[in-house]
Amino acid sequence: MALNLKNVVAEYIKFNQEQKFTASEIDIAILVRYPKECQEKKERSKATVIPIISDADLLQQLVAEIGSQRQLLQKKFPQVKTTEGRPRKYYFSEKSD
User: pTM (2 decimals)?
Assistant: First the structure.
């Protein structure tokens, strides 16, 4: 089964409502919760410039993907919010901004 990052991120932060997480904290939780899918992602990687060989490489890739998919994630799940500034923190809230 392929790792659907948008759904996994939304599920994780929804489960931990009102807590704020950086992309790094989220991807560590993903690696722990979905080890098989993460291993498959490493094996499928065709990256040549920065190959995904180790778990650290995979974590960096997941951080980049979470950040790049932020707007799509928020469009699909309007309850997903982010903080301003760096590092950006992701959280789930039913409350309006």
Answer: 0.83
